[in-house]
Design goal:
Elements: H1 2-23, H2 26-30, H3 32-37, H4 43-70, H5 75-116, H6 122-135, H7 140-163, H8 169-177, H9 190-215, H10 219-246, H11 257-262, H12 267-300, H13 304-319, H14 323-352
Helix pairs in contact: 1-7, 1-9, 1-10, 4-9, 4-10, 5-6, 5-9, 5-12, 5-13, 5-14, 6-13, 7-10, 7-12, 9-12, 9-14, 12-13
Amino acid sequence: MAETGKQLAKDSWKVATTFIGTIVGAGFASGQEIMKFFSHFGFEGIIGIIFSSLLFCLTGTLIMLLGHKLEAHSFGQVVRHVCGRKLGPLMDFLLTLFLFGTLSVMLAGSGAVFFQQWGLSFTLGTALTMIFAILIVLAGLRGIINANSIVVPFMVLICITATIPAITAKNLESVLSGFVPSARGAASCWIMSALLYVSYNITLSVSVLAPLGRAIKNRRALIWGGVLGGLGLGTLAMLINLAILRHYPDSSNYELPSLFVAGRKAWIIQLAFSFILWTEIFTTLIGNLYGLAARISDFTGMNYLLTAIILMALAFIMSQLGFSGLVGTLYPLFGYVSIIFLACLGFYSFLKHR
């Protein structure tokens, strides 16, 4: 019994950290996503994060349980099953496009870290990240799970260390009481912004969560891991958001607001945070590359490694458009289309449990 409990905890940990690592990419950890989808709404954005965290718990768990039930090797099986015979192929195609867009955002985020934090060329950063991703692209899902199990705890620790000292109730109250947004949020209201945020993130994470549901045999571990992962995402988002608001509107002038906040503390914290940020970008990048290359290779019959190389080369070209520009343009667009998948997932679950 003790061994069973130990294995349940171990598997739940793997699920939770992989869930978090899949979502916490360039936009999330850098603070750029959090700022655009929540911080610009002030106090309402705080409510939006709580709402988003609960949705992450629910939707992430549902997708993994579906992957477990269908024994899914790729995201296509889950998407087509949930969306049906008519809508399924279209959503499968759109998700493939979205994953490619995310590859570009991840590469652009890595370039921004190299440029803003390390004083190196933006293009050099994207090129090196691309090469490293290609070198380990054959690691597969097991490699992604193991990488996140190691990296995510460090990310959480550094995030807490960098953000909590920047948050004080008195200063937050003064900021929120007279809050004036320095820019438009990702949507016209906080609840739509929160829905967009969850919908595109959870839709893109299907590429990893669906086969993860097949890889983890224990359904209880998938449920516990899904809940812990969703709550972990909400906690991280809240800490980053509060730290950004503490220094708002100055923090809104940076490509990487989290690094701006961390940089106001000890330089060693900023350096550690920048390295962890790049690592999180990288783990999300290889997760998306794994799902996308596997899907295209399966559909076209092309060699998996060749497919990955071509995808990264194209994403490298698109990444030169810049990080914040891609986040502000592509992610809200992804969100509106991804709401369809979120609605299908909810409708499917409702019919199943009637």
